[in-house]
Amino acid sequence: MPTPIPAYPAPLVRAIERCFRFGPFVLKPGRQLLLKHGEPVKIGARALDILTVLAERPGEVVSKRELRARTWPDTFVGDGNLKVHVASLRKVLGEVVETPRYIATVTGRGYRFIADVQD
Q1: With a threshold of 0.85, does the pTM exceed it?
Q2: Which of 11, 22, 57, 91 has its CA 20 to 30 A from that of 103?
Q3: Is the per-residue pLDDT at 45 higher than 50?
């Protein structure tokens, strides 16, 4: 007789399966995965965390402080570190800072995810 498959709580299953679709990309945070046209994209863990925070709140300004707290929860890092990871993320997404399609800088405040997101 086969071993029964354990039943996971519905909120946990939804969190693992949750995904965000924007442009040619699909972000699956629970699986630490970014796809472009269905193919995995090489992306650093911190950049993926930043993308997840932004995609969770499209159209909203997410402060630098909140991004640092969510991405480096137990470590102090400065704005320079955040900028490096956002630049890396923009490169992965094919962004040009002057004409953003996904991430807009809100000077002195933080960043805003400006693409339409479907979950």
Answers
A1: no
A2: 11
A3: yes
Share of the chain above pLDDT 90, in %: 71
Q: Do 61 and 68 form a contact (C-beta atoms < 8 A)?
A: no
Cα torsion angle, 43, 111, 119, 7, sign = positive
Distances (CA, A) of 28 to 40, 67, 94, 96: 11, 18, 19, 24
Question: What's the average model confidence in pLDDT over 10-37?
Answer: 83
C-beta separation of 117 from 22 below 8 A = yes
Q: What is the mean pLDDT of residues 83-110?
A: 93
- Please list, in sequence order, all residues whose beta carbon lies within 8 angstroms of the beta carbon of residue 108, skipping any fewer than 6 positions away: none
- CB burial string 96-116: b at 16+ within 10 A, e below: eeeebebbbeeeeebbbbebe
CA dihedral 79, 104, 85, 35 (to 10 degrees): 160
Tokens of 117: 């997101």
Are 58 and 117 a contacting pair, CB within 8 Å? Answer: yes
Residue in 22, 67, 24 with CA at minimum distance from that of residue 49: 67
